[in-house]
Design a protein that fits this description.
Blueprint (H helix, E strand, L loop, with lengths): L2 H28 L1 H4 L3 H11 L3 H18 L1 H10 L1 H20 L6 H31 L19 H25 L2 H33 L2 H22 L3 H23 L2 E3 L9 E2 H4 L3 H28 L6 H7 L2
Antiparallel strand pairs: 1-2
Helix pairs in contact: 1-4, 1-7, 1-8, 1-11, 4-5, 4-13, 6-7, 7-8, 7-11, 8-9, 8-11, 9-10, 9-11, 10-11
Length: 334
């Protein structure tokens, strides 16, 4: 296989990893006003992702760096055309990270509520905007002959893209709430399970609508087949949550997110950024990629360091695998 095509799928794998891992982080952050009845509940929720959220977030840095090195034309067009949306995502991630660290620096309730609000916004905004961005990439945008985005902000807020944003918003929310059932005990766990049942129904309807639209308008037979797998995995996760099988439910939610993102990359293939105004102006894998020498060096680097990263992340999750309880949080405060 040509290295450029291989790196297209490696970039896809990195974004899949990011959305699976940081996706439930976003969901936990968005769940604070629904599950955090008091400060102890909110501390429990935050502590479920406390040891791993920053490690999960590094996937988007690696994905962006790989995109820059492997497909510089794609990177340049994407980041210049979607500058405002990506800037808002970056600011939201910064605000969320700062809030995690500063929330406990002051015992006053107003201080904590202020940072809780920033955690909620810093989780919901990226969850929405990532879906809007990827939906626009799949749908195609207006490009010049030199592959420069010629539209403004309003064309990006089209019905298909907004549906994509709502899909990732509710999908990550449910993903995060199911993760909470896996990491907590007692009343909080049960409330999270019931919330996942409610949000899961909404997610099934919204995600099915988006995936059907994507397959019919922009997809292929292969992307459609993967979209069906995503839908079946989502339904399975929902049914498993009904039965209280939170471990398997979370596993199938992860499969849902992974296959849904994969279906978008397959719908995009072999383009990386279609031109909606003139197909001749589209960016493809071949005309957007770096030289074979650059891709070869990157491949050796990936082969050496990617297994190390995966092993380290797996070890981290194993170390922090225990459930978080109200008792443990209260004990840590004294």
């Amino acid at each position: 296989m040509d290295l450029a095509y291989l790196w297209f799928f490696i970039v896809g794998f990195l974004f899949i990893g990011y959305f699976v891992l940081d996706g439930f982080d976003f969901g936990v952050g968005m769940s604070l006003p629904f599950l955090g009845k008091d400060d102890t509940d909110r501390r429990v929720l935050i502590n479920t992702i406390g040891p791993v959220w920053d490690l999960n977030e590094t996937w988007v840095i690696v994905a962006g760096a790989s995109l820059f090195a492997a497909f510089p034309e794609w990177y340049a067009t994407l980041f210049s055309g979607f500058y405002l949306a990506l800037l808002l995502i970056l600011l939201a991630l910064i605000v969320r990270g700062v809030s995690f660290e500063y929330r406990h620096k002051n015992p006053e309730s107003k201080w904590k509520k202020w940072f809780d609000g920033m955690i909620i916004v810093g989780s919901a905004l990226p969850a929405l905007l990532w879906g809007v961005a990827f939906a626009n990439i799949v749908q195609g945008v207006a490009l010049s002959e030199n592959h420069i985005y010629t539209g403004g902000l309003l064309p990006l807020l089209n019905p298909y893209a907004l549906l994509g944003g709502i899909t990732t918003l509710v999908l990550f929310f449910t993903h995060g709430v199911v993760f909470i059932t896996l990491k907590t005990e007692g009343e909080l766990k049960e409330r999270a399970r019931k919330l996942a049942i409610k949000s899961g129904l909404v997610t099934i309807v919204v995600a099915a609508t988006f995936l059907v639209w994507t397959t019919i308008a922009f997809g292929s037979v292969l992307s459609g087949a993967v979209a069906v797998i995503a839908a079946l995995a989502l339904i399975t996760a929902y049914l498993l949550n009904l039965r209280g099988r939170e471990g398997w439910s979370f596993a199938f939610m992860s499969v849902t997110v992974a296959t849904a993102v994969l279906s978008l990359f397959l719908a995009l293939f072999p383009d990386v950024m279609p031109a909606s105004n003139n197909p001749a102006y589209s960016l493809t894998i071949e005309n957007a990629s770096s030289s074979d020498y650059t891709l070869t060096v990157m491949m050796w680097t990936a082969l050496i360091f990617m297994p190390v990263v995966l092993v380290y992340q797996g070890w981290t999750y194993w170390v922090f695998r225990k459930r978080v309880t109200r008792q443990s949080v209260l004990a840590a405060a004294h």
